[in-house]
UniProtKB/TrEMBL annotation:
Keywords: Signal. NCBIfam families: pullul_strch (TIGR02103). This is Pullulanase-type alpha-1,6-glucosidase. Residues 1-27 form the signal peptide. The gene is pulA. Belongs to the glycosyl hydrolase 13 family. It comes from Streptomyces atriruber. Residues 178-256 form the Glycoside hydrolase family 13 N-terminal domain. Residues 52-167 form the Pullulanase N2 domain. InterPro entries: GH (IPR017853), Glyco_hydro_13_N (IPR004193), Glyco_hydro_b (IPR013780), Ig-like_fold (IPR013783), Ig_E-set (IPR014756), Pullul_strch (IPR011839), Pullul_strch_C (IPR024561), Pullulanase_N2 (IPR040671). Residues 753-904 form the Alpha-1,6-glucosidases pullulanase-type C-terminal domain. PANTHER family: GLYCOGEN DEBRANCHING ENZYME.
């Protein structure tokens, strides 16, 4: 794709799978992967096309190629490139040859296990007499050829080299220290570039020769202490398959620790330099570590947090988190006191789509508040400046291990390093630990593009390639290949740096299913090795979770065992669970009609006018199935949790259907992360705006919001909430606000500023097909915009639930066995199960989630005679309605008002 990466662009083409689309995913599951054996299309392709790289050199001895032609095979290489097909044969440059011999039976079992997508490829071994020239061959243009017995060229193609590079250099290179290193008053800069013909260092206005280590392929240069703080780039002369010529690239360091403004040059900076430590940094006292299974997480974008907060001294910056008296920080502290344990920051590494200098950033040149709530003028004006404004979610990595400069008071040099650390201090002092959203699955650019880094140093290695040698883009942008040794190493090294040097307390992996499971486990192992005595941090307390979606060219473990939902169960690394999220909201984010209802949006119990919901009988059946999905979610999404479903059958969590997949997949509490909304797709308030009957009052909308949030916060295992959701945050129905600017994304901490509903029709690029549904709602914005009573009441009710969740031990069960013993749904599958109501018994607690528009009585025979009362937190809490909930001891009957979640304690 061209221009700024669009976070969810790929989802448009995959809307047919709307029912299984993960709300926090960039892309969606695509189903079974395409077989890797030669296709009919491949057979019909030009067999002499050197722009493709269909042969794959997988180890020092073996070439895999999906060709069935020729009786004589060779690898040709030209140090300076220039090989072409002329007159049906190879010409254009002098070619050196490596002889190949076919391997009977093809790839070995071990090779097929390592490269399952190459199953069925023919195998060729490099002639032992030519193996001494392999390293040389890898630095030039490579062409695999097949000739008939008479010498006629039958097939020719370029060659992918990731496997052979790992085989030759991986063992030594994975041990190397890359980037800047400071020791004994000297500075060493190192870069892995095994295919480079020459690498030099451009530092401080002079050029320094770098030396290559034969075993590792690492080039290094060591200089005096005066190099510290100097700007530098590597000058890499290398064959680039994307342009099919030898190029000389001046490129920044993939292991940069600091950058100049605009990421134009790296800076030789020692992150351990005391000058970069803000006051109190080395003795920073963190809030007590919360185990992942108990984590309550607020997902937050740095700019959203403070850019419109008039009480902040540093709007839109890292330092806003040090403004203790700002409305935003006061709200975060209230959440922390209620039980929120982590703030999850959307990407804060160096990103490629926001100008870092404020002077270079554009702003909408319109009077945005002057337009009507349902106007298309706001989105048109915001879109005009979107490419160069200060806003982007940041899922467009440029340098993985340097803080983004646009959030600093000055993007030049190390100011961003110090201010990032002060942000961590500010959050920690407020009782909150810090999670970083990390995006190692793709880069902002590849090849010879201006913002390409990795691919300019080792072309064709760090990016994942398809069968033809083109960079895959299933994640939205140029995919990386963490299955390759040095990309996997970069992931681990980068994470360790953030944990050790910036004291980050957790990491959320974007599209984690595009990583090998082994890579994420390597991250876990490296973190576990960090100790307070040696490293200043307790690595074992760092939490890990991510998007375990299964799609793209890696789907169904096509290339490696993926870090997907089912594969990560039992590892201690959580994955987002879309099961109960879909059930409570209803339908999926790509439904043609967004009015498809769910448990928390009125399905069957409070139907809207959408025909997409089906008949009354169909609605009831779907609602009861949704309730089963939510029950599985409340168990922590445990695969083995046994209960009676709404049809009266005894089932396990894994037996409950979720669009053809098992609903339950977790092995223990903490494997699955629950949520009602996140940054992707409509905010919860906006989703409910589409789904609840249009005449629903704002007071009732607020109550349904609390109930929806409760299904996540009262589940076993961790839960995440988008910042502002407890304040009924709206993005004016925008389902993909990654580049929608401050106008659509701002959080209002002061209820008097409203919740954001009615800022105009959302940007056309991702929302125009929903405008016919959005316009009638936005035209009634005054009636659908909550006031301070609803906004503050929602937050207070949510905070009461957090207090219950984090103080009652029943919500923190450590094993699947404990959950099975303590958790039950006594009315499930019986004549007494009420559509729109879930009654959960959990140890000494009974939780009733009444999503219906009327008071419901739930008689639980098993507790008849026991003493229960409304939980003290709710009995003395902010929600007046829940205080009317009651319990009748003689019959074991719980009475709960409409649209209310009530917790009773024995």
């Amino acid at each position: 794709m061209t221009g700024s990466p669009r976070r969810a662009a790929v989802t448009v083409a995959l809307a047919l799978l709307a029912a299984t689309v993960p709300l926090t995913a960039t892309a969606v599951p695509m189903g079974p992967s395409t077989p890797s054996t030669p296709s009919a299309a491949a057979e019909q392709a030009d067999p002499l096309d050197l722009s493709k790289s269909r042969a794959q050199w997988i180890d020092s001895n073996t070439l895999a190629w999906d060709t069935g032609t020729g009786s004589r095979h060779e690898l040709l290489y030209a140090p300076h490139g220039g090989l072409t097909v002329e007159g049906g044969d190879i010409g254009g440059a002098v070619a050196h040859r490596l002889r190949l011999a076919p391997v009977d039976g093809g790839l070995t079992d071990a090779q097929q296990a390592k490269y399952p997508h190459l199953k069925g490829y023919a195998a060729f071994t490099v002639d032992p007499r030519d193996r001494d020239r392999i390293r040389t061959a890898l630095t030039g243009q490579l062409v695999a050829t097949a000739r008939s017995a008479d010498g006629t060229l039958r097939a020719a193609t370029g060659v992918q080299t990731q496997g052979v590079l790992d085989d030759l250099y991986g063992s030594a290179a994975r041990k190397a220290t890359l980037g800047p290193r400071f020791a004994h008053g000297r500075v060493t800069l190192s870069v892995w570039a095994p295919t480079a013909q020459q690498v030099s260092l451009d530092i401080g206005g002079r050029t320094v020769t770098m030396h290559r280590d034969r075993a590792s392929g690492v080039w290094s240069a060591t200089g005096p202490g005066s190099w510290s703080g100097q700007s530098y780039r590597y000058v890499v002369k290398v064959w680039a398959p994307s342009v099919r010529k030898v190029v000389t690239n001046k490129v920044t360091d993939p292991y940069s620790t600091a950058l100049t403004t605009g990421s134009e040059r790296s800076l030789a900076v020692d992150l351990a330099d005391p000058k970069l430590a803000p006051k109190g940094w080395h003795g920073l006292r963190k809030p007590k570590a919360t185990p992942l299974r108990d984590a309550q997480i607020q997902e937050l974008h740095v700019r959203d947090f403070s850019v419109a907060d008039r009480t902040s001294d540093h709007p839109g910056q890292y330092l806003a988190f040090t403004d203790e008296k700002s409305d935003g920080m006061k709200h975060l502290r209230r959440l922390a006191r209620s039980g929120t344990s982590y703030v999850h920051l959307l990407p804060v590494f160096d990103i490629g789509t926001v100008p870092e200098r404020a002077a270079d950033q554009t702003t909408p040149d319109c009077d945005l508040p002057a337009y009507a709530p349902d106007s298309d003028e706001q989105q048109a004006c915001v879109t005009k400046s979107a490419g160069k404004d200060a806003y982007n979610w940041g899922y467009d990595p440029l340098h993985y291990t340097v803080p983004e400069g646009s959030y600093a008071s000055d993007p030049e040099g190390t100011r961003r390093t110090v201010e990032f650390r002060r942000m961590v201090q500010g959050l920690n002092s407020s009782g909150l630990r810090t999670v970083m959203d990390v995006v190692y699955n793709h880069t902002v650019a590849s090849g010879q593009a201006d913002k390409s880094v990795l691919d300019k140093i080792v072309p064709g290695y760090y990016q994942r390639l398809d069968a033809d040698g083109a960079v895959t883009t299933s994640t939205c942008c140029a995919n990386t290949a963490p299955e390759n040794t040095m990309m996997g190493k970069l992931v681990v090294d980068s994470i360790v740096t953030w944990a050790k040097q910036y004291k980050v307390d957790g990491f959320r992996f974007d599209l984690m299913g595009h990583h090998p499971k082994a890579n994420i486990l390597a991250v876990r192992k490296a973190l576990d090795a960090l100790t307070p005595a040696k490293d200043g941090v307790d690595g074992k307390s760092v939490v890990l979770y991510g998007e375990g979606w299964n799609f793209g060219e890696v789907a169904d473990d096509a290339r490696f065992v993926q870090a997907t939902q089912k594969n990560m169960a039992g590892t201690g690394i959580a994955t987002f669970s879309d099961r109960s999220r879909d059930a409570l909201r209803g339908g999926g984010p790509f439904d043609e009609d967004p009015g498809v209802q769910g448990f928390a949006s009125g399905l069957y119990t409070d139907p809207n006018s959408s025909k997409a919901n089906g008949t009354e009988a169909e609605q009831k059946a779907r609602l009861l199935h949704y309730q089963d999905l939510i029950k599985v979610g409340l168990s922590g999404n445990l695969a083995g949790f046994t209960f009676k479903d709404s049809a009266g059958r005894t089932v396990r969590g894994a037996d409950v259907d979720y669009n053809g997949a098992p609903a339950g997949y977790a092995a223990k509490p903490g494997d699955a992360l629950s949520y009602a909304d996140a940054h992707d797709n409509e905010s919860l308030y906006d989703a409910l705006a589409f789904k609840l009957p249009k005449g629903t009052s704002t007071a009732d909308r607020a109550r349904m919001q609390v109930l929806a949030m409760a299904t996540a916060s009262l589940s076993q295992g961790p839960a995440l909430s988008q910042a502002g959701t407890d304040l009924l945050r709206s993005k004016s129905l925008d389902r993909n606000s990654f580049d929608s600017g401050d106008w659509f994304n701002t959080i209002n901490w002061d209820c008097r500023a409203g919740n954001g509903f009615g800022r105009g029709l959302p940007p056309a690029a991702d929302n125009k097909d929903k405008w016919p549904y959005a316009k009638p709602l936005l035209s009634s914005a005054a009636a659908l915009t909550p006031g301070c009573a609803e906004i503050n009441g929602t937050s207070a009710a949510y905070q009461d639930l957090l207090r219950i969740r984090t103080t009652e031990p029943e919500f923190s069960l450590a094993t699947a066995g404990q959950v099975q013993s303590e958790l039950s749904f006594p009315l499930s599958g019986t004549a007494d199960e009420t559509p729109g109501v879930i009654t959960m018994r959990l140890g000494d607690l009974v939780v009733v989630l009444n999503a219906s528009p009327r008071t419901q009585r739930q008689q639980v025979a098993a507790v008849r005679g026991d003493r229960y009362a409304l939980h003290p937190v709710q009995a003395s809490g902010a929600d007046r309605t829940v205080k009317s909930a009651s319990y009748e001891r003689s019959s074991g009957t719980f009475s709960v008002p409409a649209r209310t979640v009530a917790v009773f304690r024995r």
